[in-house]
Design brief:
- It is a single chain.
- A ten-stranded mixed sheet has the order 3-4-5-6-9-10-11-12-13-14, with helices on one face. A two-stranded parallel sheet has the order 1-2. Strands 7-8 form a two-stranded antiparallel ribbon.
- It has two domains: 3-75, DNA polymerase, domain 1; 80-341, Alpha-Beta Barrel (TIM Barrel).
- Helix 1 packs across helix 2 (38-48) and helix 9 (286-294) packs parallel to helix 10 (321-332).
- Strand 9 (171-174), helix 5 and strand 10 (207-211) form a beta-alpha-beta unit.
- The longest helix has 19 residues, at 147-165.
- The protein contains ten helices and 14 strands.
- It has helices at 24-33, 38-48, 64-73, 147-165, 184-195, 215-223, 239-245, 254-268, 286-294, 321-332, and strands spanning 17-18, 74-75, 80-86, 92-97, 103-111, 116-120, 124-125, 143-144, 171-174, 207-211, 229-233, 272-278, 302-307, 337-341.
- It binds iron/sulfur cluster.
- Residues 127, 129-131, 134, 136-137, 177-179, 212, 352 line the site of iron/sulfur cluster.
- Iron/sulfur cluster (SF4) binds next to loops.
């Protein structure tokens, strides 16, 4: 029994708790104490996760008194759609309101020609890291999301994908607002739920956690033998430039990060990729490309070059197509696997944090 044991005592419950913090084992213990049969807990759990019920009234195979009792003791803090922006290129950005009024965002990135439908989810409200090119980095970190709030984003965007493109999501990336490895416990629980047969039953190979680079947490992922992919938001291939745009690099230099990533690869054999936004005349020269090649020698890695989606007030410009092509060619000629991602949703607030930051 976990730390949720206190929930079993009716006398101690003063405010209603979100039922989705409970594991199935906790739920079973509570329902047994209420005199219910064990299978009822499984039914409730299925409603909460497989069927994503947003109220106890939806749980029609439970008796009315049980539904009533559940709603006396618990709530379901489902996220609520607040605003949706649709780009001409198919990208859909959604803003969600959390039960305490905070706003977060998720993005659906469809590539119908490849049958790839990816959701980019948030893991925190705001962010404590202050990457210079990022709109979220200008918001304070207000709190971590809980696993259910991350899970809900996937469920809601999956429905959006089905409604709009007739195709369910194929990939989940934790690349939205926040640093996932600073919301470690809830992020890992959300992956567990997404991949569980009791949840969405997704393959962990279709899930990528993206980090700005916190070496000790990358090592923890290795220790925990996770099965999902890892992306490092690299964006600069030498410490001087990286310190300039990503202050987290000051305590997590590239050497230290490479050690951690190598350990992650040796332990898990999971896929590692580098995300590399090119900024005109800052990190897009062939000298920068040569530095990047050096960071690709110790373990297999893919490089995703990303066209910058400018935000108001930032000192960066996006690289020209010509610079990006030269940069990518330089890497390919050295046998590095490279994908160039053109910026999506240019006609909407698609850069991370732009929509949630708006009135
Ligand atoms: S890029 Fe990611 S880690 Fe950096 S400030 Fe933005 S949300 Fe935070």
């Amino acid at each position: 029994m976990s730390g949720n044991r206190y929930l079993c005592s009716m006398a101690e419950v003063t405010t209603r708790q979100d039922i989705r913090v409970l594991s199935q084992a906790d739920l079973t213990t509570i329902l047994l104490e209420w005199g219910e049969k064990k299978f009822r807990a499984k039914q409730v759990y299925e409603w909460l996760w497989q069927k994503s019920a947003r109220s106890f009234d939806e749980m029609t195979n439970l008796s009315k008194p049980l539904r009533q009792k559940l709603s006396e003791y618990f709530v379901i803090n489902a996220i609520q759609e607040d605003k949706v922006q649709r780009s001409l290129d198919g990208t859909i950005k959604s803003r969600y309101r959390l039960h305490d009024g905070h706003l977060i965002e998720s993005v659906l990135i469809p590539v119908p020609s490849d049958r790839r439908f990816t959701v980019c989810v948030s893991s925190q409200v705001g962010c404590s890291l202050t990457c210079k090119f990022c709109a979220t980095g200008r918001m304070k970190r207000l709190r971590n999301l809980d696993a259910a709030e991350i899970y809900d984003q996937v469920v809601m965007v999956n429905q959006q994908s089905l409604d709009t493109f007739g195709h369910q999501l194929t990939n989940v990336v934790y690349m939205g607002m926040g640093e996932p490895l600073l919301a470690y416990k809830q992020v890992l629980r959300s992956v567990e739920l997404l991949t569980s047969p009791d949840g969405l039953n997704m393959s962990p190979r279709r899930i990528t956690i993206s980090t700005a680079g916190i070496a000790k947490m990358i090592k923890k992922l290795a220790d925990d033998k996770v099965r999902f992919n890892l992306a490092l938001s690299l964006h600069a291939a030498d410490d001087t430039k990286r310190n300039e745009i990503m202050p987290i690099n000051e305590q997590n230099s590239l050497d230290v990060l490479m050690d951690a990533l190598e350990e992650f690869y040796q332990t898990t054999r999971n896929r590692i990729s580098y995300e590399y936004i090119t900024f005109q005349d800052f990190n897009d020269s062939l000298e920068d490309a040569a530095n990047l090649v050096r960071l690709c020698q110790r373990f297999p890695v893919r490089v995703n070059i990303i066209e910058y989606n400018p935000i108001d007030g930032a000192d960066f410009r996006k690289s020209t197509e010509h610079r990006i092509d030269d940069f990518a060619r330089y890497l390919r000629e050295r046998d590095i696997m490279v994908t160039v991602r053109r910026s999506r949703g240019k006609d909407i607030d698609a850069a991370c944090g732009q929509l949630a930051n708006k009135d």
